[in-house]
Amino acid sequence: MTDKPTLAVWKFASCDGCQLTLLDCEDELRAVTEAVTIASFPEASRAVLDGPYDLSLVEGSITTPADRARIQAVRQQSRTLVAIGACATAGGIQALRNFADVQALLETVYARPEDISTLATSTPIADHVTVDFELRGCPISKTQLLEVITAVLAGRKPNVWPSSVCLE
Ligand code: SF4
After folding, report:
1. What is the 60 CA–ligand 1 centroid distance (Å)?
2. Cys-Cys link to 6, which of 39, 49, 134, 164 (CB 3.0-4.6 A)?
3. What per-residue confidence (pLDDT) applies to 2?
4. Residue whose CA is closest, atom 8 of ligand 1?
5. pLDDT tens digits, residue range 81-97?
6. What is the residue extent of each domain of the chain?
7. What is the value of ipTM here, to two decimals?
8. 37 phi, psi to nearest 5 deg
9. Cβ(74) to ligand 1 under 6 A?
10. Does residue 13's CB lie within 6 angstroms of at least one atom of ligand 1?
């Protein structure tokens, strides 16, 4: 591990679009990668460095028991945790399941529904762990994402009002 702060990106139930926003930063991404050690970024690499992590960006909603356990582990390893995008901050399109009988859906769709491990609902990250900041959008704004990363690394509050929420 280096002396640079560590940035980790985590994916839960999502389309990867918010992670793509980070990749889309192009020139700015070079500056970010020079300033931090990328410890986890599933859109770019399967490698995951051990924690703790200075900043975790969490994409996606919690939809399975395994997700629920994993977000707890991510939280324990993260100094600052930012939920990015509508899936992570509101449950996403997959939260439509929250209005249906999930067991009935499983029995309709799958030949062996007993093999499927899922929760009855798709829920935001803040329903499961403490979230330090929520960055909203579908996908998130590149400019706002860079501001959040820069602010967290500088130890100040991100200036991305009104579309984002600080949960301090
Ligand atoms: Fe994809 Fe939108 Fe969810 Fe981001 S918020 S992961 S763009 S569906």
Report:
1. 7
2. 39
3. 63
4. 15
5. 999 999 999 999 999 99
6. 6-93+121-166
7. 0.99
8. -95, 120
9. no
10. no
